[in-house]
Specification:
Layout (H helix, E strand, L loop, with lengths): L21 H13 L7 H14 L4 E4 L2 H11 L7 E5 L5 H7 L4 E5 L10 H5 L6 E7 L8 H11 L2 E6 L6 E2 L2 E2 L6 E5 L12 E5 L4 H11 L5 H5 L19 H11 L2 H19 L5 E2 L6 E2 L5 E4 L3 H14 L20 E2 L3 H6 L3 E4 L7 H15 L1
Parallel strand pairs: 2-3, 2-4, 3-13, 4-5, 5-8
Antiparallel strand pairs: 1-9, 6-7, 6-11, 8-9, 10-12, 12-14
Helix pairs in contact: 1-9, 2-9, 3-4, 3-7, 10-13
């Protein structure tokens, strides 16, 4: 008698799997054969050109991580102990660490439970006379309400920095997410929608030549090598404190091979998001949806269950069935490090982080995989 496979016998579904199109192998082989593996090679130039095309200008600097891009912005602004930087409490710790390393005073702001992102109201509650910058995290491949946030920051004379780690390819009001603040940082980590294995990019949304030169100096490990390369000085020398931030050309080859396929990656990611939304919209959950005017990139499909116990039950059951669901981000103000930073009440973050469930979205996910996940959730919650 033929026995049908049980659910447990089906192959496990990964939460994330990096997309490796066939062109990647050729690009990596080409980079290796060039013998130029450090930054500044042909693939660095080609990848930068595609990111520049996305944001609409050429003030793009490839980095070895999104964290490095944020650290460069902190160094370029010369933030210090007298400066307060407002950061969402619900974010990955690197968002805050990049500025804390410069000695800036980190102030944690609450989020809107409907989006898990800051709002003008949650930011204004933290603005003081010492506030120098606001870091807006665009969560889940969507975008915070940037027009209203910009109005707030302009009124207070505060710089906007965008942590767009998850948002490459997303648009808001027709423009690329990551083009509103003075600086923006993208992530091209293995877990992101477009990947270099490990990498990022800093975007300078200003034609201020001094700031551009400062970023170039920081990328040159704190030297005036860029001026030397342009023939402006006879030798280069140590000019400031910095670090090694640039993306190697080998990683840029990986990035370039994905950027040329970004349209199909975004199409599939958005299609998976739409499939989940249609299948799960009638369940007793709160789906995180993009705000008005935002075309999210589909990086993440997430929802809030009714309570923490339900979330725990879902995640435990999904783990047993190999369905690749996850949650993340204990709010920073609840962390063991919280005593060293400023935070008032962050009720929105406190009431939601333990209820968050994230579903797999990646190029290797099949319709059958998505259907398995949805059927499981319907059985658990329907």
């Amino acid at each position: 008698m033929l026995s049908l496979p049980t659910e447990a016998a089906l192959p496990p579904i990964r939460f994330h799997a990096p997309h490796i199109p066939p062109a990647t192998y050729d690009a990596v082989a080409s980079a290796l054969s060039s013998k130029h593996l450090r930054s500044g090679g042909s693939y660095s130039r080609k990848a930068k050109a595609l990111v520049s095309q996305h944001v609409g200008h050429d003030r793009v600097f490839l980095t070895n991580s999104c964290t490095s891009a944020l650290e460069i912005s902190a160094l370029a602004l010369d933030l210090g102990p007298e400066d307060e930087v407002i950061v969402p409490s619900f974010t990955f710790c690197a968002t805050a660490t990049a500025f804390a390393r410069k000695g800036a005073r980190i102030v944690l702001a609450d989020i809107d439970p409907a989006t898990m992102m800051v709002t003008p109201e949650t930011l204004e509650a933290r603005v003081t006379s010492r506030t120098r910058a606001v870091v807006v995290v665009h969560y889940g491949g969507a975008a915070a309400p940037m027009a209203a946030i910009k109005d707030l920051c302009d009124r207070h004379g505060v710089v906007i920095l965008e942590d767009a780690a998850q948002a490459f390819g997303a648009k808001q009001d027709g423009r690329a997410v990551g083009t509103c603040g003075l600086f923006a940082a993208y992530s091209f980590h293995e877990t992101k929608i477009i990947s270099a294995g490990h990498g990022g990019a800093l975007v300078l949304n200003s034609d201020n030549s001094h700031l551009r030169e400062r970023v170039e100096e920081l990328l040159a490990r704190g030297t005036n090598f860029p001026a030397f390369a342009r023939g402006e000085v006879n030798h280069y020398e140590w000019t400031s404190v910095s670090s090694s931030f640039e993306m190697p050309d080998l990683n840029a080859a990986l990035l370039y091979s994905q950027l040329v396929h970004s349209r199909e990656i975004l199409l599939k990611s958005r299609a998976i998001w739409a499939y989940y939304e249609k299948s799960l919209r009638d369940l007793p959950i709160e789906i995180l949806r993009p705000g008005k005017g935002t075309k999210a990139n589909g990086y993440s499909f997430a929802f809030l269950a009714s309570d923490r116990e339900t979330t725990y039950r879902i995640l435990q059951g999904a783990a047993r069935m190999g369905l690749g669901m996850q949650s993340h981000y204990k709010p920073l103000h609840l962390s063991s490090f919280a005593g060293r930073i400023l935070a008032g009440s962050c009720v929105g973050a406190e009431n939601t982080w333990g209820r968050l469930v994230r579903l797999p979205v990646h190029m290797d996910l099949s319709t059958g995989d998505a259907a398995r996940i949805c059927e499981f959730l319907k059985a658990e919650l329907g």
